[in-house]
Design goal:
With 233 residues, the chain is an alpha/beta fold. The chain has helices spanning 40-47, 70-75, 93-99, 109-119, 121-125, 136-149, 166-181, 193-199, 217-222, 224-230, and strands spanning 2-11, 14-24, 29-33, 55-60, 63-64, 78-81, 154-158, 185-190, 202-207, 210-216. Helices cover 37% and strands 27% of the residues. The protein starts with a strand and ends with a helix.
Amino acid sequence: MLAIEKLQVAYGKVQALWEVTLGVPDGEIVALVGANGAGKTTLLKTVSGLLRRQSGSITYDGKHIEEASPPEIVQHGLVHVPEGRKLFPEMTVIDNLLMGAFTVPQSERPQRLERVFQIFPVLKERRKQIAGTLSGGEQQMVAIGRGLMGGPKLLMLDEPSLGLAPILVEEVFRVIAEINRLGVTVLLVEQNTQNALSLAHKGFVMELGRIVLSGSGSELLANSNVRKAYLGL
């Protein structure tokens, strides 16, 4: 579904990605793990059109999207939920959710909202609440729900468990698995290596802007270098 080939990205003279190659098959969860500053967020921003590449290719659903704008990429069914939630804190929950449906016809929005409320029942209860007054876990639900409002075929999630209590981390990963069961392909960027690779069909390890390891989630969890560097084992 998504194929990235020899992608290179720089911030001015500072190289951030070095010939990154990875693929996300249709229907799977693919995890991209690595330390802070490894280049994971840069990769997602480049795929979603927020950054431009130096070289390399990005193919989504059989089409080259390297020059497409972010709205065009969303219209193709590729949606990015950024790190840090990036909600509109003074707006209500329902208005934040509807911001994710700017490419969706008005007639389809109630159905999309109902689907989000089925996944996150608490958001239906709090739909008129100001988003900035929600707990961190609830705000993350809104961020993911806003992404789902765009009707993604492929959902890219950047650090969805960041800053959450352990019980809420478990809930976020449960929801990601449910979203995937509903037919959405997922590219998951996470520092929570254990949970991410346990959930993923396939994983990639990034260090200093390069992919250094790849394999199934279980293979990477069993890899001694991964266990030592990211799991403390």
